[in-house]
Automatic annotation (TrEMBL):
InterPro entries noted in UniProt: Atg3/Atg10
BP GO terms, sorted: autophagosome assembly; autophagy of mitochondrion; protein modification by small protein conjugation; protein transport
The protein's name: Ubiquitin-like-conjugating enzyme ATG10
A GO CC annotation given for this chain: cytosol
Organism listed in the record: Tricholomella constricta
Domain of life: Eukaryota
Amino acid sequence: MIAVGIGPQRRTSRHLDGLSFEVGEADDLAVLSFNFLPSGFKPYFTSCKAVPTHDHTAPSHPIMLTRVQFEAACKELIATERPVEALNGWSWNEHPSLPNLGFLSRRVFHFRTTQSTSIDSMPTDGVDLEETLFEEDEAASAIAPESFVSCQYVVYSATFQVPAFYFTMHDPKGAPLALANLVRTSLFHPFVFEQTEATSFGLTRPASAFPLLSQGDHPALGTPCWYLHPCETAKCVDELMSELDLAGYAEEQRFVRWLEMWFMVLGSTVNVRS
């Protein structure tokens, strides 16, 4: 997972697509997401392990989720009508044969962005994507946008005890998109690939121990997918949760709120609108 930083700032109340929280005073990083990036603002990305976490001697919110808590939060989230577009279209799926391996899924459409280069010029190992992916492709801008089908999943990571975002992307003929085409779709925010290198298996940052984007089998279905590595998700969500007033929330409601904050963190990297 990735956090967006804008440097030091004062505590400010924020309202985001029906989700309200405060961005606290941060000495080195303020965690943001989805929609309240000001016009013309170009954020930078950093590994979530740089996000400061509060010293909770007795935290009033969950730090991570168990599989049972994850399932309960997911079912409650989709059962309640919410004015947040990122939370629309999801459905709960039980594993066809094993208990407690359910997951959220939805099917959405994305488009090729106009900021791209020819497929042949997609960089390989050790090449900076920033210079390549953001060259203006005037020819592409004159062509009607091509739509792609994205199957998206929110699954439980038993290793990190947090949700993880898995997805596939296929062209109109049903062929999966290669990395060179995948990174040029509207699924990703345009600033995600700054200071990012392409490898044979995904996208990485030079100073990061884990890739930003990688390939792996769906934990429940066993089918090939792309996924965002969940290694530092708990720290990112904890930073947001610590700014919420959860007094009066039942335990189950805190789990749902945790999942909402997870979607906000996810939204700093990908376009999660339905």
